[in-house]
Amino acid sequence: MTTIVRAAWALLLPLLCAAAPVRADLVVVLNSRDASVTLLDRATGAQRGVVPVGKEPHHLIATPDGRELIVASAMGNELVFLDAASGRVTRRIANVPDPYHLAFSPDRRWLVVAANRLDRVDVYHAADYTLAKRFEARSIPSHIAFSKDSRYAFVTLQGSHELAAFDLGSLQRAWTMNVGRTPAGVVTSSDGRHLLVGVMDDHHVAVVDWQKREVVRKLPTGKGAHNLAPRGDGRHLYVSNRVENSVSVIDESTMSIVRKFDVPGGPDCMDLSPDGRELWITSRWAMKVSVLDLDAGRVVRQHPVGRSPHGIYVHKPAVGGAHAPQLVAAQSAGAAAPARTAGRRSRSG
After folding, report:
1. What is the pTM of this model?
2. pLDDT at 21 over 60
3. Strand ranges (DSSP E) for 63-202?
C-alpha cells in the first residue's frame, strides 16, 4: 500500500467508525441493591454488560434531547449520565444530595428531585443543574409529576399520606392534601385535569382533581397499587400492583379499569417497547425483568438482572424514549422483600 493510500485510510477510517450506526435495541435496568445498571439486548434478552453507578440507583430519566439517560444514585449523592443508545457513562454530577426520583418539567426549564431519605424536594435549573430552591417535605417524598403548563410540580409524600404541589413560577410551596395511605407513583392525565396516584396501602389509584384539591374517584386496581406508566396513546395507563403481582390498564376516557395481567415477582417500574407491543417491567423481588406481551396478555419472557431491580428504560431510537416515569412499600406475596439497611429508612418507592 502506498504512503498516499495509507494516509487516506488513516483520515477516512475514523469518519467511517463515527458514522457507523449505534445499536439501538438497548434496555437499561437499575439494580438498586447492587449499585449497578444492567444492559440488556431487547431482541434477545442477552446481557451486554453491567455498569457501576453508585449506591442505590432507583430511578432514571432521559435528558430532554433524548441522547443521554440520567441515573439518580440516591446514596451516592450524584447523577450519572449514560449514552442512551449504548449505556456508556458519559459524565457525572457530584454533590446532588439523595436524588431518589427525578423529572424534567414539560417546558424543560426545571429538574425536580425528590430526596426521599432527607425529606426534601429540590428544584434545579435544567440548563446547568444548579440548585434553584430547596423545600422541606413532610415525610418521604417519592414520585413527581407536573401540570401541563409546567407551573406546578406535584410530589407524593409516602410517610404523611399526602400529595404536595410546588409553584415553579414563584418557587413557593402551593398546597398539600391527603390522598390515602402511602402514595407512590403519580402521573398527569392526558387532558391535564387530573392526577392519578398509586396508593399502595389502600390498594387503589386515586383520581385527583388537583385544582379543587379533591379525590374524585378511587380505582381498585389491585393490592399494592404502586407505579403508573402512560401508554402514549392519550388514553391508557398501566398500573403496577406490587403485592398482587399484576398490572392493570386504566382507560382515561372513562376512568375505569379495562384489563389486568398477571406479572410475577413484585412488578414495579415499566416501559414500552418502541413498537408498543411489549411492556418491560422490573420484578422487584425476583431479580428479574418481566416482558409482557400485550396482545397475548401474558408474560412471555423473564431476564435475570441484579438485586432489587427498580427503574427501567427501553431505548426508542426516533423519540429518545423515557423512563416509565412518571414513566415510579409492600412486600409481594410469596417472595421475600430486600433486607432493610440498619440505621436508616428503607426505600419502598
Report:
1. 0.86
2. no
3. 68-73, 78-83, 89-94, 101-104, 110-115, 120-125, 131-136, 141-146, 152-157, 162-167, 172-178, 183-188, 194-199
